[in-house]
Design goal:
Strand 1, helix 1 and strand 2 form a beta-alpha-beta unit. The chain has three helices and four strands. The chain is an alpha+beta fold and about 130 residues long. The longest helix is centred in the last third of the chain and has 30 residues.
């Protein structure tokens, strides 16, 4: 999975920031890595003069092999909040995408897209530990 980072002129997009972003994204997206071709990160600072504005924006676009790209966006008070918020949204969007793909393939009878066995184990243990 390739991660590309770009920013506007108000954000210093140095090597340290790129490494931090890659660290934030690799964790939650690891289980989707075999299906992800590229993730594009766009950072923007609106530099609002109003105190308390959510003026830091992180947009993520995930390009999937054999499917349309998924795009999410999160606005935060800080760049860190915007990046983490967007990463959480992208993880949920990918979960929904693959859940829908599994449902569609179950109806059509085609071979479903699969995620690593760890996801199935996590779900099974959550079901087993659920209160009756």
């Amino acid at each position: 999975m390739q991660i590309l980072v770009s920013s506007d002129e108000r954000i210093c997009c140095d090597t340290e920031l790129i490494q931090r972003i890659e660290g934030v994204l690799r964790g939650p997206l690891e289980r989707f890595a075999s299906h992800l071709v590229q993730v594009t990160v766009s950072l923007c600072d609106l530099d609002s003069s109003d105190v308390g504005d959510r003026d830091k924006i992180c947009s993520l676009e995930a390009r999937l092999s054999g499917a349309a790209a998924l795009t999410v966006r999160h606005e935060g008070f800080t760049l860190t909040e915007a990046i983490h918020g967007a990463a959480d949204k992208l993880e949920r969007a990918l979960e929904g995408h693959f859940r829908a793909a599994r449902r569609t393939t179950a109806v059509s009878g085609k071979q479903p897209l699969t995620l690593p066995a760890a996801e199935a184990l996590t779900r099974n243990s959550a079901i087993a530990n659920a209160d009756p």
